[in-house]
Structure formats: C-alpha cells, structure tokens
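FAQ

Q: What does a record look like?
A: Structure on top, sequence underneath. For example:
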C-alpha cells in the first residue's frame, strides 16, 4: 500500500528547479525500496530539472536483502542523481574493515550483533568462525564475500547532502557547533554527537539549526514520520513495522509519502 500526503509549505527549500527526494532507513528491505521508487516518482514535479534521490543511510543490515539493495543503488535508479548517505550501520561495517588486529574482534562483534548477521546470511557465503581464524584470514574472507566493488561503493557514501537550505543527514547534527564543524568529523569517529549517531541534543532541540537549515534525517525509529518545526525524521521502521517513508522537497513545499509491506 502507498500513502501520499498533500504537499505543504515548510521553512526551507532546495536549489531552484531541483527536487530533493529523501528516503528513510531501508535496512535491507529490497521489496519496500522497489515500491517506494514507484511512489516517489509520483511526487516529483514535471518542472524539476534535476532529482537528487537521497538515501538517508542504514540501507544494510537487519533486513534479508541488504546485498540486493546495495547492488540496485550502485547500479543507479531511474535517471536520478542518487546520493547514499553514510548511516551508523555502514559505519559499523567500515570500522570492521579498517580495524587494527587489536580491535578487530570488538568491531566484528558490534557490527554482527547489530544486524550485520542478516547481511552476512544474505551473502550466502559462510565466514569462518572468528575464534578459530587468524584476523588477517578472517578479514580477507569478509572482503571476498562482500566484494571489493561493494566495499568501495559504501566507502564513498557521503556524510550529508545539502541543497539550498535542505540538509539531509543520517542521525542529525550537533546544533551547538557549526555545520562545518559537524561534518569535519571523521566518518569513522566514535562519538555520541557524530552526525551518524546523534540523538541527545538534536532531537530535543526546538530552535532553528545552524545556517537556518531544515534537517531531514533517519536513524531514530518513530511511528511517523516525525515533523518538527525545523526538521523531519523519516525512519519509520522498515524492518520493525514494515513501513518505509520518504519526503520530496520542491520550491517551498514538502510532500510526505510511505509504502507498507504487502
């Protein structure tokens, strides 16, 4: 089922003649991604000269088709300008791949226990038990299973996307520092205020954000979408509730849409 709500004005707009389509956390739900692409197309004005199709991060893990999602996104969607944002789940995987021998097992356990196991099962290739395998061999098996092209693709995910004063990011921003300072943080930083992880200090902030941005984010599951005066949260629990949400921004209006599992 699809739901498309009537467009309404918000305090923000993308670049002139650009439609920004933002999609919440997919988490390996290939079925919902296919549905929402069809629905999103119905919300795009014919006057738009470019469509920035922004995936707000966490496209992998938890669901049973993370690899199919990754491959579809990397191949391209329609004639859109596809922009994947780095979520904390992609960050967890990259931490494994970039870990030292001393920290590898810790990062492996953290990713695997937070939905990475579903992505591993989706690969249909058995990774040797970490307790019985040297770190070098274990990491090599993981890289081989994922494939170098997929790893390089994930490694290129952006910290954010900004068009006009519409700012798309996975977790959010720390409103106490500038946007430049927010996104100067390394993508693999372990920090509660990091743009891929932040909740406290962002979700409860009710004043305008730096540079008068309207923030579009995922990360925090809500039975929404959740609209606040200067932001909207679009993670509606694709794997928990079977609902994937998005929003299209054009001129000074926003159109919210959703799809649900059949």
């Amino acid at each position: 089922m699809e739901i498309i709500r009537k467009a309404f004005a918000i305090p923000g707009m993308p670049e002139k003649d650009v439609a920004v389509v933002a999609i919440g956390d997919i988490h390996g739900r290939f079925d919902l991604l296919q549905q929402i692409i069809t629905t999103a197309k119905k919300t795009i004005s014919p006057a738009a000269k470019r469509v920035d199709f922004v995936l707000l991060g966490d496209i992998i893990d938890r669901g049973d088709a993370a690899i199919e999602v990754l491959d579809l996104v990397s191949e391209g969607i329609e004639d859109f300008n596809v922009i994947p944002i780095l979520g904390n789940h992609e960050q967890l995987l990259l931490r494994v791949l970039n870990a030292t021998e001393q920290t590898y097992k810790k990062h492996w356990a953290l990713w695997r226990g937070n939905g990475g196991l579903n992505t591993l099962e989706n690969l249909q290739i058995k990774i040797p038990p970490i307790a019985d395998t040297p770190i070098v061999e274990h990491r090599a098996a993981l890289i081989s299973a994922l494939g170098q092209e997929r790893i390089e693709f994930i490694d290129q995910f952006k910290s954010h996307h900004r068009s006009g004063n519409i700012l798309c990011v996975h977790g959010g921003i720390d409103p106490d520092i500038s946007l430049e300072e927010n996104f100067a943080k390394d993508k693999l930083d372990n920090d509660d205020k990091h743009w891929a992880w932040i909740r406290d200090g962002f979700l409860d902030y009710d004043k305008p954000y730096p540079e008068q941005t309207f923030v579009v984010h995922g990360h925090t599951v809500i039975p929404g979408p959740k609209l606040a005066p200067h932001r909207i949260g679009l993670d509606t629990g694709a794997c928990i509730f079977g609902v994937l949400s998005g929003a299209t921004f054009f001129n000074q209006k926003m159109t919210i849409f959703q799809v649900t599992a059949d």
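Q: Is there anything notable about this one?
A: The domain at 2-86+159-260 is CATH 3.60.21.10 (Purple Acid Phosphatase; chain A, domain 2).
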